[in-house]
Structure formats: structure tokens, C-alpha cells
Amino acid sequence: MPDDFDPEALADVLTLIDDNLEDSLERLGSLLAIPSISTDPAHEGDCARAADWLMHELRELGFQASIRPTPGHPMVIGHHPGPGRHILFYGHYDVQPVDPLDLWSTDPFTPVIEDGPNGRCIRARGASDDKGQLMTFLEACRAWREVTGSLPGNLTVFFEGEEESGSPSLVPFMKDNADELRADLALICDTGLFADHTPGIVTQLRGLLGEEIVIRGPSKDLHSGMYGGAAMNPARVLVRILAGLHDDQGRVTLPGFYDGVEDLPPEIAAQWEALSFDPARFLGGVGLSTPAGEAGRSALEMIWSRPTCEINGLVSGYTGAGFKTVLPAEARAKVSFRLVPGQDPQAIRAALRAHVEAALPPDCTAEFHPHGASRAARMATDDPAFEAARQALGAEWDRPAAFVGCGGSIPIAGHFKTILDMDSMLIGFGRDDDQIHSPNEKYDLECFHKGIRSWARVLARIAG
Amino acid sequence: MPDDFDPEALADVLTLIDDNLEDSLERLGSLLAIPSISTDPAHEGDCARAADWLMHELRELGFQASIRPTPGHPMVIGHHPGPGRHILFYGHYDVQPVDPLDLWSTDPFTPVIEDGPNGRCIRARGASDDKGQLMTFLEACRAWREVTGSLPGNLTVFFEGEEESGSPSLVPFMKDNADELRADLALICDTGLFADHTPGIVTQLRGLLGEEIVIRGPSKDLHSGMYGGAAMNPARVLVRILAGLHDDQGRVTLPGFYDGVEDLPPEIAAQWEALSFDPARFLGGVGLSTPAGEAGRSALEMIWSRPTCEINGLVSGYTGAGFKTVLPAEARAKVSFRLVPGQDPQAIRAALRAHVEAALPPDCTAEFHPHGASRAARMATDDPAFEAARQALGAEWDRPAAFVGCGGSIPIAGHFKTILDMDSMLIGFGRDDDQIHSPNEKYDLECFHKGIRSWARVLARIAG
């Protein structure tokens, strides 16, 4: 916490944030209008445009900013040297694909302000994940600069454009630029509020392992009348492989999958118990009622501290309108695992591939496409910045901030630790109903507004 | 067999067929250029065009022809009253969808004559199934008419346009027009040669039952980090349901599935044995080596006389390039069964639905879309027309014709029997490598040419 923390300057910054909200929203709208879908090669130019937009924004805010090419989409880096602890802020400018497009009520890349379930919101792909979130930090910097004439302390901003597609360029880039990127603490804004008006600081994150499996059989699609019965159907092979990944208790069956996975320590279990999380409300919001994970685990454990295996995509044969009696030549599945501390992604990938290979009948082959592998992470909550940020957030929101888990995978936190030996603090303002990765993604204006104010408060306490 | 069978007239007809082959091919090309994909509503107009084209063709040949509307695609009927046994010829003018389009080497609806594996062939969707085949009959009629001034005997032609999409209008139409359609024998041209130069007359056909299954879970696609572990994934439910349809011996597990299914009678088994069918060659042509059906059955049994269960289509979640960590809101499968004599399609549909319903966890629902249900059929081989046709075919081809089974489902044969009490004789000239229902469908010019000549010979012996 800086010694020269000036409550009056902070008050002026907060007032300016309130006054300038319309302009802030307009800037967010410009960024949201760029369809920077990183997984789709057709949007390569859009990713470059989003990076460029952010570089200019950073320069306007007084950062020494540059676009940094990679074999994939570029990084954007801005430096603002100054006194005190070196803080790095991370966000990502790329977004998820938008399909099924027909389920969107408005165009995903024409942002609109409308009435949402929690007051006004801005609707567009990336509104919450992660463009709206990263803009809360930039807008806090902007207000700070307008009030004090400068940015607070020693800041670096680091944006990537491949977060939604497994970040293939991230690790090599961080290794090549380790000295430039290494700071005393990283702030990551890609998570949500714990509850509607309760901010959270994430202290543990699940890892992620993705794998695409392609089972091939006949050399081409066949007529099921002519060949049905005698020709092996790769879709039949695939469903048997996938069905074998869980047992009747919802546990993953791969040998060694739970090696190193520990039960929740009693003190964390107690903290989580105190959060009065309501599984019925959480699941009810998406049309469900029954926690579907491992038998005997609480819903919070299922989403924060237990590993999972999920089918994310499945395709084979004829999928259009009507019917086609085809024996498909191939069947594909995208499968991913959420990992918890103790699990080794590469060992699990090897176990998955062995499971697939062992299940192949004659005439079938398997092809594998890896899509990212990141370990789970636990945060350094003994760093005083965690308590300072908790107090800053508590001052902005109705309820004290909570130390929580996060079921999502933010591999960057693990990379910061492994490659740069840098701890991370994850603070974000998304809400559960933001529909991230789904049609009609939105970000509540309240979250955007109070998010900007939150960063101003956090910076006042930990920067400079 | 007509008493006035005139070998000289037949010789003239055959010569004319040889001389006019180019014109015959041109007419086939015009029909193939119409993309009459019955399962796709976007091609409704094309189906109507194909029907219209055939009606005009029939009128040119001296039939009293008309388009007969149905709630789906129209029927085309032509009558030519005359002496002798009333013969009805059936074919279908609709074709399968063409996807995946990028696997076609030429446009599927721009027919081209090219060199194929068995000499020259015509390449287009529907070339073999069934436009090329039905045109063999019409071109035989044309030659007959040009030589003799009239068509032989008492002929009716009946074309439908929904064969590739479950024939929803067929049964009601046949019931409403039973008196008009009832003949003494039906000729159906929608099957293949038994071997490259060995014609076959099909004496048993499998039935077909299709069902689309939709499993729904959450009310929308979810983020697998936020909900993964706690939310039920319908793709996981679907693969378990589908994997449960076969046991380790390749048998279908639905209760009652094999009720009424009989082992092959020894005399049929002996006939089939004599055909010297080569499973290695049959499967090798499509990149396979091992018969994949029920343990302990021959490959011919697997494709002709044993029932099957196949996954024809599978789709859930994100299936595009790259990866998306989504928990899908729904998962869909198209499943079909090839049925043999003794099996009741409706009982099997009920058993399938019960299997699905019993496997549904909390929060998941199942929706079913039926796609056709036809029983298997055995033909009336004691009708002397079968032996007459066998001799006629043997005169045209290098080898005597064989009585064979057919793994495909030609529901019309069952409907002719059930609704009109009319027996069918199935004769066709397709080859195993015709790629029907697959990209790059073709029909060998040899099959087209000798197919026309074959019908001239068959008509000489059984019509008039």
C-alpha cells in the first residue's frame, strides 16, 4: 500500500468516472464492434484491428505502447514507468465464436445498450469476456490521469489475442520477453463477482486440457443399406469411447486421473460454507435443478475444486434437415478437462489417448489434435495486496469482498507463476447471467461503472 | 410370357438402343441436371421440375401421363393400356443431399461423362440412384416404340419424389389410388448388379426404421468453466445412450429386437454360398478389412439377412475450427435400423424410445422425430416371371442372373404387397462402387447401355 494514498484525489477520480460514463461506454462500444474471434482464421484481420485499437488507446493514456507480433495474433504491451511496486495488468481482446447465430436477439458485433435482468446492460460478443472487463481498468487509468495528470505508480499493461483459442503463442512470447514482463504482482480481470453485489478475489483456479479426437473408419461415407452390418461405423466407436469416460458415480474413469487431487482443506471448506452459495438458484438460472457432478460433492466443490471431463463438441455423418442413411467415414469429438491442483495435464492427455487407442476396433484409426494444457493454480493470499484489494472492493460494493474459487481456467495465472515467478490477483466484475461463450452475451452497466470505480480504489491502495 | 414373343423385333430394338445411346445419355443428363434433393425444403421447386420433366418424357413415349400432387413432392404416373399382363414400373426421381460438397471432384448437378474404374461413366448425384436406373426402362420403352410403333403390352409407370426422405406421402397416395395402381406385377429398378457382370434379381429386402433423438439439458449453451461439473451435459447423456445400443458381440441390445428374426434357411444359405461373394474385396473397396457385424455371421448375412442399428448423424456443441469450451444445451443423433423379416418396426421404435427415456438423468429431456418405418420383404419367386426375367438377363450379361438379397431398404416393395397385394420383382444395374449416397456418385455407361437392353429383353418375355 503506497504511503502517499490521497483520499481526496481518489474522490475526484471517482466523481470523474461517474461524469464520464457515457464516453467510457462509447469507447467500449468501439472495441466491441471489432469481431476479434481468435479461433477462426477468417477473423485474423479483425484480431489485428482490435490489437491496434488498444495500442492507440494505451498511447492516449500515457503508456509507451506497442504491437508485438507472434506466430498467431499479436500481443499489445504498454509501459508506464513510475515509483513503487511494479504492477502488471492482463486482459484479452479476443472473443469466442458467435454460433448459433440465430439465437442472438441482436447482431453480436453491433453493441446495443438495453434493459437487462439487472438494469441497463451492453449486449455484444465480448461485452463481459473480456473486452468490457479490460476496459474497466483502462477507464480507471484514464480518470486517474485526467485528475492527477499522470498514471499511478509503475504500471505495465499486457493484452493477448488468443485466450479463447488456447493461447498457442503466449508461453513462447512470455519466455522471450520475460525480463520486460516480470512485475511484482499481476492483476487479471477475467472473472466475475461472487454474487450480484458481492465482489470476489479468486484464490484458486482450475486448469484446462483440450483434445479433439477424430475416429476414422471407411475411406468414404457409405450407404447404410449396402454396407450396414459389415462396415464398422466410426460414430459407434466414438460414442463408446466417450461413454466410457465417466462411471455411474460421475467420476472420470481414466487411470490416474485423480492422482494428486486433494480434498478441500477444512478452513477453505468453512470459508466456502460461509458464502451461503445457493445451488438451486445457480442451476435454476440455466434451467437445471440437480448438481450433476461426482456423487457426494457439494455444488461449489463441483465447479471450483473438483476436476471434470466434458464433451464440448460432437459431429459425424449427416446433421442437416431430414434423414440420410449414411455410414459416416469419420466421427469427431472435442473433449476438455477442467483440472485442479495436483493434476498433470500431460499425464491426463496421455491417459485419454491410451483410452481411445485401446478402444479402437480393426479398421478404425484415431487422430488427436491437442488444444491447450494448463495446470490449476492457487494464489499467494499472504501478499498484503490481497487484503488491501479486499478492503478497496468492500468500499465500493454493498458487501465485503470474498476470497473465492473459480471453475474457469485462466492459464495466464499459471504461466505468470511458472515463467515469471510472478503472483497474480484475479478481480473481475462479470455476472453469472452474462452469457459468456453463449448467444446474447452482455455486461451490466452497473458492473462496468462500479468496475471502473473499483480499479480506481484498488490502484489507490496498491500502486505508486 | 407372351405367346407372340418376336425374336426379330427384339433384335431390331436392341440394335436401335445401341445406335441411339448418345441421345439416351443426353436425356439422362437433362434429368440429372435438376437438383431434386427431396429432404431439403430449399429444393422443393427442383423436385417439381424433375416430376414435370418425367411427365413430358412419358407423354412423348405414348403414355397417358400426369403429375399427381401430394402434401410433399408430386407423383408422376403414366398409363399405357394394352393386351396381356398388367406390369407396373416404379422408380424415384429424388436424390440424396450432396454434402460434404467439397469432396466432389465435379459439380454434383453438372453431369459429366468421364473415365471411371469400369470404363466410361456419367458422374452426378442421382446418376445411379435412381435417375440413371429409371431411365434404362424409359429408354427401352422408347426403342420399343420406335421399332414397333407402340409400347409392349399393358404398362403403368409410377415415379415418386420422396424415396430418399422416407416417402411420407407414398402410403396415403397408394391407398387413395389403389385401383389405379394395382397391376399384376411391379418392376422396381433401384438395386444393383450382384457382381461386375452378374445381374441379380433381389428376392429379399431389409426394412428400415429411422429416428432422430434430441437430448436437451440446460436452457442454453454454458461456459464449461463456470458450470462444468455441476451442470448435466446432454452430449454425455447421448453418447451413453448410443453406446448402450450394441453389446460386445455386435448385437443390438434393445429388448425384443431379435424377436421373430430367423436364421437363414439352409437352401438359401447354400445359394448364397454358391455366389462366391468375396468379403475382402467388398470391404477393401471402401478401405476396410474386417466384417464388423454380429460375431459368428458371414458378411453376406450381415448385409442381407441380419438386422442392424447404425448412427447416421451426430451433432452437439461447437463443431467448427479450433476449440470452444462450451457445455452444449442439446445433443442430437440420427439413428436407423435395417430390419429383416419377422421384425416389427413400431415395436422396435417403442423399444428405442424406452431405452432413451430410461437413461435420462434429472434435468434432461428427450425429443423424438420418426423418419420412416418399413418392414422387410420376401419376394414371390414362384411367379414364372422371375424365371423368365432371369433368362432374359442371362442373355444380355456374361453370367446367368442370380437370386440375391439386398441390404438396402426399398419400402415400396412392402407397400405394393401390403396395400395393393401386388408382388414385386427388383432388377437393377448399379455397381458397388457407384458411390450412391456419397460424394462423386456415378453410373457406368456399360450399366446404362446394357440396362436398357436388359429391360428390352425382359419386356419381350413378360409384357404383352
TrEMBL record, chains A, B:
One of its GO terms (molecular function) is peptidase activity. Residues 205-363 form the Peptidase M20 dimerisation domain. The keyword Metal-binding applies. It comes from the Bacteria. Keywords: Hydrolase, Metal-binding, Protease. GO terms for biological process: proteolysis. This is Acetylornithine deacetylase/Succinyl-diaminopimelate desuccinylase.
